[in-house]
Amino acid sequence: MNLPKRVEIMESGPRDGIQNEKTFIPTEQKLQLIHALGETGIKRMEATSFVSPKHVPQMADADVVYRNIDQKPDLQYLVLIPNKRGFELAREAGAKNLALVAGASETFNMKNVRMSVEESLHQLSLVVEEAKSEDMFVRFSIATSFHCPYEGIVAEETTLNMVKTLETLEVDEIVLCDTIGRANPHQVYQLFSKTLDLGTKAKVTAHFHDTYGFSKANSLAALQAGITSFDTAIGGLGGCPFAPGAAGNDSTEDFVFMLNEMGIETGIDFEKLMDCVILVKEMTERRLTGHLQQVRGGSLKQRV
Ligand code: COA
Ligand code: ZN
């Protein structure tokens, strides 16, 4: 099996994880989770999103959240940005690491950010230019890289063309997202292989949701294709308000456990991660879908 020695994980719980929670999670609790995740050894985290409070009320406190993070110097705190206004607000808050997003599918992009794909790419290309001139780190997520909840399968060529466009913008990282968790391992292997075959200079990252229970199989397929950077969310939380029916992200603790078992390093302390699962269990109303917390039942502290 073609496997790396080490995998890098970007924890998306505080953003993708909780953006879809119906009851507003108090800012203090969001910060508590961000700080607890920071203690696990995780080196990258999406802390919040600067999006419209009308469209995504859970993220209405992005500015306060970001400003009050007791930032660890060796941890990259990313913030999601859908448009120019989001960039301005993030910059005012002091953000240095941007996670821009646009969808490969027209209908999804229109529902998600109320712009055509072309408008998104145009507006965000100006953001990239400005951000790069200020030495910011820019990652760019291609939402619905595989499937769209409204249009069905997205042609490989459509996503690959978007990758090529992002390469010309010289973004630091490109993320292929299975936003609705509908991709299969064969599709994943093909698209990531073809993306790497383009000679992509940006770091290429995989982002899976577990709607059909394929997220681990998809992660393994991406690993086989040569991908070593992944987005996951603690507790398997997650889902996009504009992708109906989509389940949570691939769960961080399950993925770390699987990698540990396979002898692949992550630098993450598994027991501290399970402490964070207890925290998200308390702060959300959702039944968590991660397997490890089910294996441990009521006693998350018990050794597996
Ligand atoms: N953050 C906060 N407020 C924003 C904003 C942002 N990024 N972008 C626009 N606004 C404000 C405007 O200032 C304006 O405020 P006003 O009414 O007080 O003047 C208002 O929102 C409407 O602006 P408009 O440009 O017409 O935005 P819109 O209503 O068309 O919404 C987005 C566009 C992109 C802001 C919205 O669709 C959005 O937030 N999408 C993100 C969805 C998401 O987070 N999905 C999950 C992650 S992929
Ligand atoms: Zn997602």
UniProtKB/TrEMBL annotation:
Keywords: Lyase, Metal-binding. The keyword Metal-binding applies. Residues 7-274 form the Pyruvate carboxyltransferase domain. GO terms for molecular function: hydroxymethylglutaryl-CoA lyase activity; metal ion binding. The keyword Hydrolase does not apply. Pfam families: HMGL-like (PF00682). It comes from the Bacteria. One of its GO terms (biological process) is ketone body biosynthetic process. Belongs to the HMG-CoA lyase family. This is Hydroxymethylglutaryl-CoA lyase.
